[in-house]
Each structure stands twice: as C-alpha cells, then as structure tokens.
C-alpha cells in the first residue's frame, strides 16, 4: 500500500517538475522498491548503531570534562556546549 503512494507521488513530481521527462513504468518502480527493501532496513540499523556510539562518545567527553573540573574553570561552559552539539 505504501509503495503505491511512493510511486504515485514520484510520477506526479516528475510530471510537475519536467513535463517532457518520461519516468520508468510502474512495474519497474515496484521492482526497484521491492529490491531495495532489505538494504534500506540494513542501512537504518547501521544508523541506530552509529547514533548509539555517538551518544557514548559524547558521554565519554562529558566525563573527561567533569574529571578535569579542578584543572579547568570553564568546564560547565564546555559541558553546555557539548550538550548543544
């Protein structure tokens, strides 16, 4: 059901953006979407791992800043900047 909406939206966009452009047929587009399903899922899973590792990296940086609080008078500012990043 969702694939049909994607294809219809694609065809509408092609028609609106460039009327002389001839897009692929619906059966070809369905085949492409069907073939790409697994790789899309795998890619999203990789993004989750990347986000988790990035979060751990920021936690590690925050801990390093907090551990050096006696050595750095700007630690609170650094932690706030880190949170905003």
Number of domains: 1
Q: How much of the polypeptide forms β-strand, as a percent range? A: under 5%
First-to-last CA distance:
38 Å
Helix share of residues? Answer: over 70%
Q: Rough shape?
A: elongated
Overall SS class: mainly alpha
Please summarize the sheet with the most strands.
none
Count of alpha/pi helices: 3
Order of helices and strands: HHH
Let me know the average pLDDT. 73
* Unreliable parts: none
Q: Over all CA atoms, what is the radius of gyration?
A: 24 Å
Oligomerization state: single chain
Total E-strand runs: 0
3D structure, described in words:
There is one protein chain. This protein is mostly helical and 85 residues long. It is 80% helix and 0% strand. The chain has three helices and no strands. The longest helix is centred in the middle third of the chain and has 42 residues, at 26-67. The chain is elongated.
Features:
85 residues, mainly alpha, 80% helix, elongated
SSE inventory with pairings:
Blueprint: H1 2-17, H2 26-67, H3 75-84
Helix pairs in contact: 2-3
In short:
The protein has 85 residues and is an all-alpha fold. The chain has helices at 2-17, 26-67, 75-84.
């Amino acid at each position: 059901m969702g694939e049909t909406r994607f294809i219809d939206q694609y065809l509408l966009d092609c028609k609106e953006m460039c009327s002389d452009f001839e897009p692929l047929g619906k059966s070809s587009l369905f085949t492409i979407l069907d073939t790409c399903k697994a790789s899309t899922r795998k890619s999203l899973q990789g993004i989750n791992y990347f986000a988790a590792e990035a979060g751990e990296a920021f936690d590690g940086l925050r801990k390093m800043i907090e551990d050096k609080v006696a050595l750095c008078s700007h630690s609170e500012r650094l932690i706030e900047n880190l949170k905003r990043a």
